[in-house]
Design brief:
alpha/beta, Rossmann fold, Arc Repressor Mutant, subunit A, 3 domains, nine-stranded mixed beta sheet, three-stranded antiparallel beta sheet, 45% helix, 13% strand, elongated
Length: 370
């Protein structure tokens, strides 16, 4: 078998002692992955360190490229080296791009930049999602997917899972999951069904970690840089002041991506992350069309001003609010009494309904949008 430069990249992707930063340094010195692989122990040690050099020699003697490639083929996993044309162009230009990517599923999604008006957008937020967060994440992700955008997230609990599912629920909707573990396994395990649904719907599963690699504390921030790196924009729907979604959003700001944030109820601690981002310059959005206009995507199929569209698929609470506001405007306290719900949940439902364009709030009085 003839060993190619791509195979040497694959070798370094599997060698745990070398990450993107050190690999960049190695490439700068040796000129290619092949030359680095073939370097003697002393010269490699001058660049990578003596301890790592010894580990490197041991790994070279145990890693069998032919067997490994056969294993990837059986698992239907493709490896893309950093220099290949299929490697996402946006990701290639971040400060420390992955040496390579392991992908499972529909590779065409990585070529979305050649499709007219189609882009990837990261949708991220808290794992501890609220009713409000769930509703706005579903609405934005579904509408953006309907417009042709590819929803990118990390397949975690909460906002991530809701965003993926909302994209899948749209006819022709596509989504990409970036994992903090190998692409051969779903994490968390409870998302196994979602993992399979993404693949069945011709979505894509991505990781820089080799198959079989379990998640770790450090792998999630690294995963987040890829989420932001492959996307042309980042949307944060809900998160606390210490939310991991801020890591993704900050990567987005660092990489020059458009960052969007949805304002939430001021009574909720999970409105903190979007508000902090807005303070830092993120664009406040209240409607998916705000994002599409900002990204100059014009051929979308949104009809947000259509009353018929707005009044479809209402929850029981939303239907009840529509009914009690049919004949008169009511203030917040009156709606709480009519619904017989606590004020916090009522506030969340009303905020979602305003975002959907179902109701409006004028001077503290809520009414149906005409």
């Amino acid at each position: 078998m003839s060993i190619t430069e791509k195979d040497y990249y694959l070798f370094f992707s599997n060698f745990s002692g070398v990450g993107p930063i050190k690999f960049k340094k190695i490439l700068a010195h040796f000129g290619s992955a092949k030359m680095a692989y073939e370097a003697d122990t002393d010269e490699f040690g001058e660049i990578a360190g003596k301890v790592l050099s010894k580990k490197f020699e041991t790994f070279k003697n145990t890693f069998e490229i032919e067997n490994y490639l056969e294993k990837l083929k059986k698992q239907k996993i493709i490896y893309i080296a950093q220099f290949e044309k299929d490697y996402p162009e946006l990701l290639r230009h971040v400060p420390n791009p992955p040496i390579g990517l392991f992908v499972k599923g529909n590779m065409e999604l990585f070529n979305s930049n050649i499709l007219k008006n189609t882009r990837m957008i990261a949708v991220v937020g808290t794992r501890h999602i609220t009713h409000y967060g769930r509703e706005v994440t579903k609405m934005f992700s579904g509408k953006l997917a309907e417009s042709g955008m590819i929803i990118v997230s990390g397949m975690a609990y909460g906002v991530d899972a809701v965003a993926h599912k909302a994209a899948l629920d749209v006819v022709g909707g596509k989504t990409t999951a970036v994992l903090g573990n190998g692409v051969d396994q779903a994490y968390p395990r409870e998302n196994q069904k979602l993992y399979e649904e993404i693949l069945d719907a011709k979505g894509l599963i991505v990781s820089e970690l080799p198959p079989g690699t379990p998640p770790s504390v450090g792998s999630f921030p690294s995963r987040n840089r890829i989420v932001a790196g492959i996307s042309s924009a980042v949307l944060v729907t809900e998160g606390a002041s210490d939310s991991g979604s801020l890591i993704t959003a900050n990567f987005g700001l660092e990489y020059g991506r458009k960052v969007f944030a949805i304002p939430g109820p001021v009574t909720s601690s999970l409105s903190a992350a979007p508000l902090r981002l807005i303070e830092k310059g993120a664009r406040l959005v209240v409607d998916p069309s705000d994002i599409l206009r900002e990204l100059q995507i014009n051929n979308y199929k949104l009809q947000m001003n259509s009353k018929k569209s707005n009044f479809q698929n209402l929850s029981k609470e939303e239907e009840k609010i529509v009914k009690i506001l049919e004949n008169e405007s009511l203030n917040f306290d009156e709606i709480v009494r009519e619904l017989k719900l606590d004020s916090s949940k009522t506030a969340s439902i009303l905020t979602v309904m305003e975002l959907k364009g179902i109701i409006k709030n004028a001077g503290g009085e809520y009414s149906i949008t005409l």
